[in-house]
């Protein structure tokens, strides 16, 4: 019997082949796990609009939102095979494919959102996007994902000890598994679109995410204790299949990259507004917000994760470069819609 992945792959590969034989008329297919109203999905539609403008409608993007094509891990594989042209995913599922991406997922790496943006927009960000090429993915851009924090159905979390024994859903990445283990909790990798049900059924007690995902996924309706651990600020990433990229001519590549670059500031504005909006919505709904988190305790408990995953001089150098980056001072950062993580180890 065919697996779900094979069933998915067959028609997509077929359609992808039409690009080769039928010229450039077919739109680029893009996978997205979030619903239509989410900032990342809106950014993909912005790319479509900019591309259509630049090319007189010759190049378009068709967005498959809401996770309808499968989990991020699955669609990423399909993208590498060439069955999907574009894919917007979190960096987590890329961690096992491109080791350099793990650096951006290190816990308490960034001092603030402004610091994370300096890394994404600067040389380290470029190096990490380029590191994807030999793995079949063209890294096109990063999108903000803000700070991730733990939330759960059971109790307020202030110290790592409060996490002991909790079953926590994580993304499909060993670094997230290790982080949760380092806190004495039990990590369970589950695709994003299945987490709500897992929380309702008690398969897991909690998860971790940013404000917009916590709100948009409705996890807040079940997991009512949100603790501002702000432990990771890894970004979202937009990738193209190298199969697709190689079929585009020079001008088409330029159009696509320009449209993608144009979508980044649009997404950033949408993101900052959505962070505020989502935070307000869930607070109005009455969730318990735990702000007096012992960040130093979390950071030192997770510190061994750095040593475990920074296994080569190249990875260590990337982490050092990011730590050494200047970022706007806190006042300016706050002005930029910042929600600076506090209490990191630097
Ligand atoms: C969100 C992210 C998604 C997905 C999700 C998750 O913040 O935007 O791409 O990675 O988290 O936790 O799986």
From TrEMBL:
The keyword Secreted does not apply. Pfam families: DctP (PF03480). Keywords: Signal. Residues 326-346 are annotated as: Disordered. SUPFAM superfamilies: Periplasmic binding protein-like II. InterPro entries: DctP_fam, TRAP_DctP, TRAP_DctP_sf. Residues 332-346 have a biased composition (Basic and acidic residues). PANTHER family: DICARBOXYLATE-BINDING PERIPLASMIC PROTEIN (PTHR33376:SF2), PTHR33376. This is TRAP transporter substrate-binding protein. It comes from Luteimonas salinilitoris.
